[in-house]
Amino acid sequence: MFILSFSIALTINLTPLYSFDIDYLGISENVGLSKATLMENYRVLLNYLNFPWVAELNFPNFPSSESGLFHFYEVRRLFTLDYVIAFVTAIGSFFYIRYIKKNQLFWKLVRPFQVGIGVPFVVLFMIAVSFDQLFVAFHKLFFNNDAWLFNPSTDPIILALPETFFMHCFILAFVLIEIQIVFGYFYTKKKAFN
Q1: Is the C-alpha dihedral spanning 168, 173, 174, 179 positive or negative?
Q2: How does pLDDT run across 125-170, given as a tens digit for each residue?
Q3: Nearest-angstrom CA–CA distance, 32 and 128
Q4: What is the C-alpha separation between 94 and 100, in angstroms, rounded?
Q5: Rounded to an integer, what is the distance from CA 193 to the centroid of its chain?
Q6: What parts of the chain have a pLDDT lower than 70?
């Protein structure tokens, strides 16, 4: 859970990914705003999603509907949940790894890491086959309404946040997960059998 929540936290705050996609996906041309303006609006969104003291979401260059604002409020709650899970599991992981080291029980972690190596590949395969279906399933799982179905005429921010950008976020998160699991596997294997 720590690896998952930590990878998500890194991904959702990695502004260079959005900066890259502005150029790669031609977002500036699609919405008629400069890269600097888009980045400013993106930072406003991240500040709202990350900081409890930012009470309202007011994009400098995009109007928002009540439905759109409600969806971002729900996303904010998911951000908070992810941070809580990362914090709690970091503490648990710290003490568990300390126990493992103290008692030389690294062998107990080899098999879980070995099995875990395959999971991100399954998700990455699903992304490659049909990200659309995965994207819809994700929203149906985490949201019990249709507020995430943005109308570009009332919530033009969706044009600045294309689905391909979210696909890149999913890919990055699962690549980060895979890197940590592979590292954990080789590290524990080395410790267990040396």
Answers
A1: positive
A2: 888 888 888 888 888 888 888 888 889 999 999 999 999 999 999 9
A3: 30
A4: 10
A5: 35
A6: none
The number of folded domains in the chain is 1
pLDDT recorded at residue 77: 95
Do 123 and 174 meet the contact criterion of CB atoms below 8 Å apart?
yes
In whole angstroms, give the CA distance from residue 7 to residue 11.
6
Token readout for 59 is: 């994009």
The range of the structural domain enclosing residue 30 comes to 2-192
Give the Cα-Cα-Cα angle 142, 168, 122 (nearest 5 degrees): 70
Q: Is the dihedral of CA 163, 139, 80, 41 positive or negative?
A: positive
Record the tokens describing residue 11, joined without a space: 């991904």
Annotate 22-50 with b (16+ C-beta within 10 A) or e (fewer): beeeebbeebebeeeebeebbebbbebbe
Tokens of 41: 């609006």
Q: Nearest-CA neighbor of 82 among 56, 122, 50? A: 50
